[in-house]
Each structure stands twice: as C-alpha cells, then as structure tokens.
Amino acid sequence: xxxxxxxxxxxxxxxxxxxxxxxxxxxxxHLQTENSNQGSDTEIIKQMQNDQITVAPKLSTSGQTGxxxxxxxxxxxxxxxxxxxxxxxxxxNHILRSTFxxxxxxxxxxxxxxLDKLMKKSSxxxxxxxxxxxxxxxxxxxxxxxxxxxxxxxxxxxxxQVTFNISNDHLLEGYTQSYMNDVSIxxxxxxxxxxxxxxxxxxxxxxxxxxxxxxxxxxxxxxLLSIKNNIVLIPTWVIGYTTSDSSSVVVKRINxxxxxxLDSSSATQSTTN
Amino acid sequence: MKIxxxxxxxxxxxxxxVSFALSASILINPAHYDRSSQKVSTQSSQIDAKPMSTxxxxxxxxxxxxxxxxxxxxxxxxxxxxxxxxxxxxxxxPKFTEVKSNEKNYLKYLNTxxxxxxxxxxxxxxxxxxxxxxxxxxxxxxxxxxxIVIPFDDSNDIYLFSDHNYKVYKIHVSDTxxxxxxxxxxxxVRAIPxxxxxxxxxxxxxFYKSFTMxxxxxxxxxxxxxxxxxxLLSDSQDISVKRHRSSTVYNDENSRQLSFSNDGExxxxxxxxxxxxxxxxxxxxxxxxxxSQLLVSDTLANIRFFNYDSKNSKVVYRNYVEGFPIFxxxxxxxxxxxxxxxxxxxxxxxxxxxxxxxxxxxxDTKLITTDDLLNSLRNHGYxxxxxxxxxxxxxxxxxxxxxxxxxxxxxxxxxxxxKYMNYTxxxxxxxx
Lengths: 273, 432
Known about the structure:
The structure holds two protein chains of two kinds.
Chain A: H1 2-36, H2 41-47, E1 54-55, E2 64-72, H3 76-79, E3 87-92, E4 95-105, H4 111-118, E5 131-133, E6 142-149, E7 152-154, E8 161-166, E9 171-177, E10 181-192, H5 195-204, E11 213-227, E12 230-242, E13 249-255, E14 261-262, E15 268-269
Parallel strand pairs in A: 1-11, 7-11
Antiparallel strand pairs in A: 2-10, 2-12, 3-4, 4-9, 5-6, 6-7, 6-8, 8-9, 11-12, 12-13, 13-14, 13-15
Chain B: H1 2-48, H2 52-55, E1 60-64, E2 70-74, H3 80-88, E3 95-99, H4 103-110, E4 115-125, H5 126-132, E5 144-151, E6 157-162, E7 167-172, H6 178-186, E8 190-199, E9 202-206, E10 211-213, E11 216-222, H7 225-233, E12 239-243, E13 247-252, E14 256-261, E15 265-270, H8 280-294, H9 297-300, E16 303-309, E17 314-321, E18 324-327, E19 335-340, E20 344-350, E21 352-358, E22 365-367, H10 370-379, E23 387-398, E24 405-416, E25 419-422, H11 423-429
Parallel strand pairs in B: 18-23
Antiparallel strand pairs in B: 1-2, 1-4, 2-8, 3-7, 4-5, 5-6, 6-7, 8-9, 10-22, 11-21, 11-24, 12-13, 13-14, 14-15, 15-20, 16-17, 17-18, 17-19, 19-20, 23-24, 24-25
Helix pairs in contact in B: 3-6
C-alpha cells in the first residue's frame, strides 16, 4: 500500500512538471517562429497584420532594375498654348492650368474611354499621347494621367502629370498639366530593391501607422534633385495607404536604389471617395 | 484486479517520458533558433554587396566583323560586359588546350573575323576570371590572361590571351551561346572604329578615326571620417587622435594608423594584418573582401580592377564610367592596396566618392586619333619608346560653381615613364 501511495505522489508531481514544461515549450516555439521569420520579407508582410495593417496587392520579392533618368523642366507647354481650343489657360511655375469655356459632358459610364480619345487631340491637350491613365491616383472627381517614359511612369503633380477636374454632375471643367521634356537615360541599368522590401523598410521606419490599409505599391520615376531646369529622376517605390481615421490616401516614396525614404513633404493626396 | 494494478505505473511512465521529451525539445530549441537567425543575417548583408565578378570584370568590348573591321562598343543604358558575362555563366564542361602561338601570329588570333573580344585592363588569373565567365572554369589551369575572344561560329570554342608571353589558350565548352551574346551587342550600341595593332611588342588599340564622346557630371559625396574610423579601428579600445594643420591622424594600440588629409585623401596602415598571401589569386581575393567591407555599396558599383603589380604586391582599383576608367581623382586611382615588405598592409583611398549622376548639358567632346596623339607628343619632344600605354579615359575635374559637383571629360591618358598623364597637360608642360 505504501508503494502505491508513493506512485500516486510521483504521478501528481510529474503531471505538474509536464504541464509546466508544456507551457514553456509553447512559449518557446512561438518565439522561434517569430524570430526565424525575421529575414523573409513576405513573412514580415504577413506579420504586419498583427498591427492591423492589411496589404491588398501581391508583392514580388525579386529584385528588378532601373535607371537614372534626366529630364528638362522647360516651358514647352506654354509654347503650345495657341493650339488649344475652347480653353482659358494660365501658366506659372511650369504648370499649365486650363478651364474649358464650355465644359465637356462625360455622361457615358466610363470616363476613361472618352478621355483616352480626347488625349489624342492636340487641340484638347498638348503631348497628350505621352500620358497614360493612372487608376491608382484617379478618383471620382479627379482623373489622373501620368507621363510615360522608356522605363515606367513619372510621378508627381509637378513632374509629368495631367489631372482632370470633374464636377459632381459629370462635367469636365478643366485640368492642370505638367510636362517633362527630353526624358533620357542618364546612366546604365542598375539593380533596385523589390517592392516587398520597399514596403518592409517603410514599415520598419515606422512610417505606416497601425490600422492602415496598403492600397498599392508601384514603381514610378520621381525627382531626386534638380539643377536649374535639369532634373534627375530615379526609380521610386511609391506606396499608397489609407489610415483608419481618414479616407484620403497617404503616399510615401522609397528610393528604389538604396531603400532610403524620400522626403514626404506634399506627399498627401486628398481624395473624396 | 490485474489491469487495475498496472494502470498507475503505466501512467507514471508516460508522465516521466513526456517530461523528458519536453525538456529535451526545450533544450534543443534555442540552439536551433540561434543558428537559423545567423543564416538570415548573412543573407541580408549579401544582398547589398557587389559580387567579385563585377569588380574583376573585363571593361572593354571590341567587335570584329566578318570583313575584319573592328569597333569598340559602348552602351549608355546597360553595362555591356556584365550582360555578356551573364550570357556566359552557363558554360559547361570546359576543355583546356594551349594553341601554338608567338608574337607574330598572336595578333591573327586576336583579330579573328566575326568575333567579340573582351579586354581586361591588366592580366588576371583564370581562377579570378572564372568568377566572371563561369564557375566551371575554376578547375582549369590558373594561367594569367588579358583578353577573351568568343568567335561567332559553331565551334563552341573560346580563346584566352596572355599578352605577356603571347600565349593563346583554347577552351572548348558545350555551348558558347553565340545567339545570346550577339543579341546583347546588337541592341542600342555605339561603335567607335578601331584597329588592333602591335606597338613596342604589345597589342595596342589604334583609334584611327577621330570620334566624339559624351561628358558626364556627378554629385560627389564626402564620407565622414567617423565612418572609416568605426570600420577600420572599431575593435580597438585605445585610439589616440592627433590633429595637424593639414591632416588628422588616428592611432591605436595595435600599431594601426588611419590618417585623413584635408583634401579628402585617406591612408590606412596596418603593421599586423594577419596572414595575407602574396600569391596573386589569394591576394586579389583578399583585397576584394577588404574593399567590399570598407566601402559603401553605392560606391562599389562603379569600381573595377585596374592594375596588379606583382613585384610590390600592389593592386589598384579605379572608378569606371560607361566602361572607361576615371583618372586624376587621386594620384593612384580610386583605391590602392599594397603589402609593404610582405608584412604590413597599406590602403590609399579618398573620402570623395561618386554619388548621383547629373546631366551636364554640355556637348560631346571630340577626340583626336591615336596617330595624331603620338605625333604631337613626339613633336613636343617626348620619347615614343617610353610610352607604355594609352587609355581612353575620363578626367575628374572639380567645378568652380560647386564643391560637390564634378565633371568627367573624355580625353587620352598616356602612360609615360610609368605614370599616367592627361595628354593636354603633357603637351603644355613638355617633357621634364
């Protein structure tokens, strides 16, 4: 009988030890998965969900290539003003602002089809064929076309962008336009970071608040610096996200050559949808 | 009764086994996690490093056509030698044979009709070259070579050339991927007509037609002294700093010295660098590792091997722009590494590095032919026999308007009495 009692006591002790060890084991293995995944960008993007950050687009983790481009910010737009009809035009700081004397009705379902056709007319807009519809930046009241280069689109209202203003009753009222002249390759092709890495670095710089929604991550060419009217453009991962307390899209830029964050002044783009 | 009798010991055994299993796995776990995280960190740091094949890659591409006409090829939008190297990476089953050659027929092999030639600025071992061509070349004899010729035929042979003793080596591989290479050199290239010749018993590229070259501009970055102090002297506790009128000198207890002169030049001297082999292959590998640890990866992108001097165990790297070396950044190039008396290691480099290319808005520069160049040097009293090399290169010049803006102007650099000089300066100065 004594031996049975000893057995029972031992069993109770070992079960207690087991429970304790099991709790330790679970904690440990949890820690392990967290740490060993640190290196992989896709895993970090998954972990961003812990901060209630949702990532809508699927992002590639493989490196790509890009160029240093140069462009001239001259007054080409102003020179072509005479060709435009039905428009009242002002031009300042390399930006052309136009208002239609008779607004154009955009009554069919898709604005884009009508605008795509209009963009080809030189009496409607100059250099229109060099721009492309941009779904990321377009909203109900402003439709954005971005200037094309040999290697991707330009980004920035001052750097090769057309923004159409559309009233609530579907009237095309006017537009603002900027244009980069003589875009050319400045230096040979160089490796750039992947979009996944760009997002991870932005996250690690603490630039994405909790409860945000990553809408898009796209490669654009944006201005790095300017010397007089000569502009140096670099491939940039432009990341757009919305926060919980506002519907406007916040835009951040990451230098795709070295992953540095580019200054975010005037990077907020307000939308009203 | 009997079953009941066994239940308790059985449960006890299970509990003991489970506790053993759990403690074992907990003990193993942290070690496992440590090892995996280490792997990850080395991986991520390698992403930024430029591979050895880039630093030790050929710098010049010459196309010989069916007709025998030759052209130096340049491309502003891609790096030609890197792209061609990628086309060669799959070369398999190399078979090595030496071709009978001498000074007389050496040129004939070099000028093989319908081929492409890749030139190194100086001779390199095949072990180092294999990093650029294909890893399968590692097992071949470690001969030193200056040039690679890939004939555009079905032979699947490539030829390696050693200028020093006029040796020609034929390497047969399973597939030379002629189509892939042809595609790279057909897209978007600029061709300057040239002719390979022998002058003073060495192959020489004769630019027989005058041509133009673009000028470039760069913003330069002056790296802080602290960056290099932490990189080179970080493991020392006792660092003394002396500030002089024209320089700042850091010393540590391990007899290492790092001095910065006010014009941006840096000297590093380590009298106990540990074992560094004077064997060329080992030395070049070690120097690559040193410079890739020392320099910011942005800076490394433009840097190529330029010259190795076996007598003094000295290697020089230069900045390159579109396949052409940059001169006069400093007296020696971008970085110089030297073993002094086989025991001490010395580096020379500059705090100023090329950072962002900028448009210059200037017109292309016209360059005279190499014949005109040699004639005008002779007319100014220079001895043509003392000229050992002529390089089409870029002159680094500071601009008046800005400290951080430099221009790179194409010009001829002539190696006279063992020193490279801009020919316009030679003409204005006269022989000394």
